[in-house]
Specification:
The radius of gyration is 24 Å and the shape is globular. 39% of the residues lie in helices and 18% in strands. A seven-stranded mixed beta sheet has the order 14-15-16-13-12-17-18, with helices on both faces. Strands 9-8-7-10-11-19 form a six-stranded mixed beta sheet, sandwiched between helices. Strands 5-6-20 form a three-stranded antiparallel beta sheet, with no helix packed on it. By secondary structure, the chain is an alpha/beta fold. The site of nicotinamide-adenine-dinucleotide has 30 residues, from helix 8 and helix 9.
Length: 519
């Protein structure tokens, strides 16, 4: 074990102790938060690797089916308690809950950084998002009024937005705190109890967040976190009779399994899946901004972002100049240890992802693509940083049918392709089975809106990239999923409209079929 591994294990051990998750004598860490208690898993052992070194980090246990039953039962009981409070009281308690994070932000950021391998700066930003999301949805608690429908009879017909009961949520490893708060906050603001399963690769931060929140006055058991593998704990969650809605953030392949499991039980789902987003640069764009945007679009989070601008479409007459500038900027990004303040890009999170990304680069080379920069391990890493590092990579001479141009890479890799005119740009941008995001860079406002309006993507930026806020709806078309998160649309995913009919006529009458009664 090298010095970096010893240091990372010590940091993690200290943080788990600080948050109360550290193992009892000789045991494995308490990786679940169930009914107001920290509980160790009972299933098979899961070993985590340090993304920066590839060395052993820690082992914990899969939750197992019994713990999942307990979690669903607790959420079901607590949900009734939660809904017995007034709407304003629920909002007050959500606001009080989020204040419990105060003083723990830096430790939470460090915990995420060491396990997920993300730069510490990025993790601090993620903690800030957790707070923002809870504050935003706390404000919705007492504003979820229904509607009165002007029906053509003497009835008063009103619609209430009622919670599902207990919802099941499953999140990925690339932004564990963000996705946890992103789904927890609207779910409980809408009046549900929750059982959430984080990725098996990043189990701890969601447990810590749930524990801190609940200590702020949420009913015991309202939020439960179960950790384990997809095919075990994940599948048990999606198949559990006590779950009335599934919300999934992850890959299209797993998303299909989740939607299938829901369909078998006639349980609806929201799927937030992957992407292959087009970042379109016209020749009349402010190229300095466009180059900076292109770089941030795909190299932030080492490209492990669902909205990564992984297809750079550049108008042909500026293609060579833009590719050269993006390549130069990419080669100047500081790649380093997650804990270093100077690091702008860390390693990929796990060996499977590393092999997936490097395999795609190799196949692209073999198919005739040109690696402009990157494609290998970065130079100048500290001794012992033998983990899943890949230099920011720009690839050109790519045919739109190549795997690297069609499939999600989910790594620091962008393919650059030229286009001739507006129609060509739109055709290329929409030539994908995904539809999560996209961007247009031009100084012509009419063209910007015209092109944006024709992109089949859930989010479109004009002269910008990656501006995302909890107030604005987010989600995909096609293989990027369905349903929406964030904003009022995200809140509505967690409620069902209930239509209530009240007879207000002088004489009560009951309709017998469509042709009688008060219609
Ligand atoms: P993944 O699909 O492998 O895993 C996601 C989650 O699903 C994990 O918690 C995993 O344990 C669970 N899971 C896997 N199989 C399951 C099963 N059979 N039953 C129940 N649960 C199961 O995805 P990942 O590799 O963790 O994350 C990367 C993917 O997530 C990328 O495709 C990325 O684009 C996507 N993503 C999308 C968004 C979005 O908002 N659209 C956000 C972040 C990540």
């Amino acid at each position: 074990m090298n010095a970096l591994d010893i240091q990372a294990r010590q940091t993690l051990s200290d943080l788990l102790t600080q948050f109360g998750l550290s193992p009892e004598a000789g045991g494995l860490p308490c990786s679940n938060w169930i009914d107001g208690d920290l509980v160790a898993g009972r299933g098979e052992a899961i070993a985590l690797t340090n993304p920066a070194t590839g060395g052993e980090l820690i082992t914990y246990r899969d939750a197992g089916a019994d713990l999942l039953d307990q979690a669903v039962e607790a959420a079901s009981r607590a949900q009734v308690e939660w809904m017995a409070l007034t709407a304003s009281e629920r909002g007050r308690r959500m606001n009080a809950a989020i204040r419990r994070l105060e003083g723990h932000e830096e430790a939470l950021a460090q915990l995420e950084s060491v396990v997920a391998g993300k730069p510490i700066r990025d993790c601090r930003g993620e903690v800030g998002k957790v707070r923002e999301m809870f504050e935003y949805y706390a404000g919705w608690c007492d504003k979820q009024h229904g509607e009165v429908i002007p029906v053509p009879t003497s009835h008063l017909n009103y619609v209430r937005h009622v919670p599902f009961g207990v919802v099941g949520q499953i999140t990925p490893w690339n932004a564990p705190m963000f996705t946890c708060a992103w789904q927890l906050a609207p779910a409980i603001a809408a009046g549900n109890g929750v059982v959430l399963k984080p990725s098996e690769l990043t189990p701890f931060s969601s447990v810590v967040i749930a524990r801190l929140l609940e200590s702020g006055g949420l009913p015991q058991g309202l939020i439960n976190i179960v950790n384990g593998l997809g095919p075990t704990t994940g599948a048990a969650l999606t198949g559990h009779d006590g779950i009335s809605k599934l919300v999934f953030v992850g890959s299209p392949d797993s998303g299909r399994l989740i939607a299938e499991a829901g369909a078998r039980r006639l349980v609806p789902s929201v799927l937030e899946l992957g992407g292959k987003s087009a970042n379109i640069i016209f020749d009349d764009a402010r190229l300095d901004d466009a180059v900076a945007g292109a770089q941030a679009a795909v190299f932030a989070a080492a490209g492990q972002s669902c909205v990564a601008g992984s297809r750079l479409l550049i108008q042909r007459n500026v293609f060579d100049a833009v590719v050269e500038r993006v390549g130069r900027a990419a080669s100047q990004i500081t790649v380093g240890l997650p804990a270093d303040e100077a690091t702008r890009m860390g390693p990929l999170q796990n060996v499977r992802q590393f092999e997936h990304v490097t395999g795609m680069i190799e196949r692209a080379r073999a198919a005739g693509a040109r690696v402009v920069t990157g494609g290998t391990r970065p130079l100048g890493l500290p001794e012992g940083a033998d983990g899943y590092y890949l230099a920011p990579t720009v690839i050109a001479d790519v045919d739109a049918s190549m795997e690297i141009a069609c499939e999600e890479v989910f790594g620091p890799v962008v393919v650059a392709m030229p286009f001739d005119d507006e129609a060509d740009a739109i055709r290329l941008a929409n030539g994908t089975r995904f539809g999560l995001a996209g961007a247009v860079w031009t100084q012509d406002p009419a063209k910007a809106h015209r092109v944006a309006g024709q992109l089949r993507a859930g989010t479109v930026w004009i002269n910008s990239y990656k501006a995302i806020n909890v107030m604005s709806p987010f989600g995909g078309f096609r293989d990027s999923g369905f349903g929406r998160s964030s904003g009022l649309d995200g809140l509505r995913e967690y409620t069902v409209p209930q239509s209530v009919w009240v007879e207000t006529g002088v004489e009560a009458s009951v309709a017998m079929g469509y042709g009688s009664g008060h219609e």
